[in-house]
Amino acid sequence: MHKTIAKVPAYAFLLALILLSPQGIAASGEKDADTAIDFFQGDPDIEYPAPAPLLVNPMARDYRSLNGPWEIIVDEAGMGWRVITQGDYFDGDTVYPDTGMMLKEHSFDSRTQLQVPGDWNSQVPELDRYRSRVLYHKALTMTPQAGKRYLLYFGGANYTADLFVNNALVGRHVGGYTAFDFDVTGFLRPGKNTFIVRVDAALDETTIPTMRTSDFWKYGGITRDVGLITESDTYISQYHVYLHDREKSEIRGWVQLAGERVANRVVALDIKDAGVKVRIETNAEGRGEFTVQAKDLALWSPESPHLYDVALSLGDASLEDRIGFRIVSIKGSTILLNGKPMPIRGISMHEETVLHPGLSASREDVMAQFKLVRELNANFVRLAHYPHNEHTVRLADEMGLMLWSEVPIVSLIDWGNPATLAVAKSQVAENVTRDLNRASVVMWSISNESFPQTQARLDFLSALAATARELDDSDRPIASALVGNPKEEFADIGKHLFAQLLRDPALPPSTRERLMAIAGGQSASGGAQSESGGGMAVVIDDPLGEVVDVVGYNEYFGWYYSKYFAQSLGVDEGLMRNAMLAIMPGIRFENAFGKPMIISEFGAGAKQGLHSDKGFIWSEEYQARVYRQQLQMLAQSPCVQGFTPWVLKDFRSHLRELNGIQETYNRKGLVSETGQRKLAFQVLADYYGQEKAREEAGAEPGRALCQRDSVEAVPGATGD
Ligand code: GCB
């Protein structure tokens, strides 16, 4: 933004002179020198008020949807402040009475609209890669009622959203994937009201996520539902109702009031089918807690996703929800659901539907994604790499899908920056608060593949874990997808690879000689044996493992690593891939913390429809081969309780520009962007189908128990 007049273009300088001249001042009435120069200055240097405390369960309230078309102005030059607050660069609303003349340079108009909810990138071809500011405008005619409170609710806007009502600034929300709301009561007037939301999708190295270090498309816009909520002067803003003790059927929780008279009020909680009726009294801060015994509670589980109708009322106002009761806990290195090892048949998923380009925004969009999840025989979804919309978690509750819920702390973050930490914390808090009552959410993830392994990173992520733990009294486990230390971890594997290569008759004699010389006498049939037995062990020891309850680990055996080894040994990549795929079934995964493990990613790229009888890279055959080897390999890891392969569907990414194959899509999907299956889909579906049949026949989940947990120890676990 131009801060000094010296930098402004000549035409603007002339204009400023005109406005500053006596005639100019006379013609524009109240204009003064500052106003004229403001023309160039963009935003004033002010503090933006924060949103109101998050309202949970928005749709169950008196909710007037503001979805649909919004008029827009693409504010690429960042000149929007005056347009928003005055209607134009100039004094936009003044029409001179003598002539009716008025110069305008901007207007919101029905000819330029975007659908809300929705990203702008997939709606307008010119905005496909646009990552700056767009002004959204909507007019609403209404009569605000005395004694009522009005809150403008956004399911999400990516990345920074500034709200203006009737041209006045209300506040700013930062973070692209979490819900927020503003109390707009004092800004509304009878008749026509205008809402302008300035959305800025710009990211830099201090934002969460950053632009450069995360492999997904940074869609901009008002991407999720928007609505105006009407509340009484005092209302229930947040609550948590959860099963605390499975054996005693003890339900606990709290309610939080907001508004004018929050102290010493009574909230009634009614869960009719569980025989629960409680009066909850609030304290001076408007918070009330309760503990109550339920009757014949049917627990929520993937096989039987039972949801109870729960009603919370304050005076005449009642808020209804559907809540499932279950307990997630950890015993040794096993995650338990309702006291039994949790069967995890997982898949990772970005928030893109197969129904249309761009982000998933509606229940139908999510349903199309979950239909594929079901067809895979999966029961667990890693929502990568950020909180997904509320339709997702509610549908998962209904369908019995377990969720790993994540915040977009991906790879390299500005770990030492307090402002970045504050935004990260607010994203964790908003994510946890929105979904506290969702039985489907079985763990909170605080990061994906974060590095480097410094103290600053550990402090940052520990603070996020603490935030989640503080807000969630039901003790959902905290997870993270870790990366390893390839040099140390892969030393053993390198030796096995070496031996495998030397066994390959296709290895050219000159390469063989060179490798033999490097090996210096190492036996071609051997390779080092790891301490823990015949195979090779990858032991995850990233110190972040101390902080989390569940150790996730992303590994790309059969995909990236072969390239790394081929290059460092100067061996043909195809031969290296064959060697790697051959040794994979001997690799085992463990962690140094005795904690439960989930392989949070593995995968390989394939262009749907590309076939190769030689199993060439990017073919469906190669991807399917990687999946077969991975499944064999992971079956050897008793400490791995489940996995969430990467990824359900091809998704857009700024990092993927390989022409003819990627064309801005990460091709590791099991289906294409339009939902066409690749061969690997069936490989995984068959594997999970067998697991599911075994579980239904009463067997313990295949990999659920680490050797160090005794099987006897588990059934007695109360899970609380
Ligand atoms: C990863 C990242 C994920 C990428 C994936 C890939 O490890 O967590 O965001 O998309 O690898 O395809 O490289």
- How many β-strands, per DSSP? 33
* Top-tier CATH class of the largest domain: Alpha Beta
Mean pLDDT: 90
Structure class: alpha/beta
Could you list the spans in which at least 5 consecutive residues all have pLDDT below 50? 1-11, 21-33, 523-533, 707-720
Name of the CATH superfamily of the largest domain: Glycosidases
> How many domain modules?
3
Q: How much helix, percentage-wise, in residues? A: 10-25%
The total count of helices amounts to 15
Terminal CA distance: 55 Å
| Strand portion | 25-35%
Report on the structure:
The strands form eight sheets. Strands 21, 22, 23, 24, 25, 26, 28, 30 and 31 form a nine-stranded parallel β-sheet that branches. Helix 5 (363-375) crosses helix 6 and helix 9 packs across helix 13 (573-583). Mean pLDDT is 90; it is low at 1-11, 21-33, 523-533 and 707-720. With 720 residues, the chain is an alpha/beta fold. It has three domains: 58-232, Galactose-binding domain-like (Jelly Rolls, Sandwich); 234-326, Immunoglobulins (Immunoglobulin-like), CATH 2.60.40; 331-484 and 535-563 and 589-696, Glycosidases (TIM Barrel), CATH 3.20.20.80. (2S,3S,4S,5R)-3,4,5-trihydroxy-6-oxo-oxane-2-carboxylic acid is lined by residues 215, 385, 448-449, 554, 601, 646, 666, 668.
Sequence-ordered SSE layout with sheet pairings:
Elements: H1 10-20, H2 22-27, H3 33-41, E1 62-65, E2 68-74, H4 80-86, E3 113-116, E4 133-142, E5 149-154, E6 160-165, E7 168-174, E8 180-183, E9 191-200, E10 226-231, E11 234-245, E12 250-259, E13 266-271, E14 276-281, E15 287-293, E16 308-314, E17 317-323, E18 328-331, E19 334-337, E20 340-341, E21 346-349, H5 363-375, E22 380-383, H6 390-399, E23 402-406, E24 410-412, H7 418-435, E25 441-451, H8 455-471, E26 478-482, H9 486-503, H10 509-519, E27 536-540, H11 544-547, E28 550-554, H12 560-569, H13 573-583, E29 587-591, E30 597-601, H14 620-634, E31 640-643, E32 651-652, E33 665-666, H15 679-696
Parallel strand pairs: 21-22, 22-23, 23-25, 24-25, 25-26, 26-28, 27-29, 28-30, 30-31
Antiparallel strand pairs: 1-10, 2-3, 2-4, 4-9, 5-8, 5-10, 6-7, 6-9, 11-12, 12-15, 13-14, 13-16, 16-17, 18-19, 19-20, 32-33
The structure holds (2S,3S,4S,5R)-3,4,5-trihydroxy-6-oxo-oxane-2-carboxylic acid.
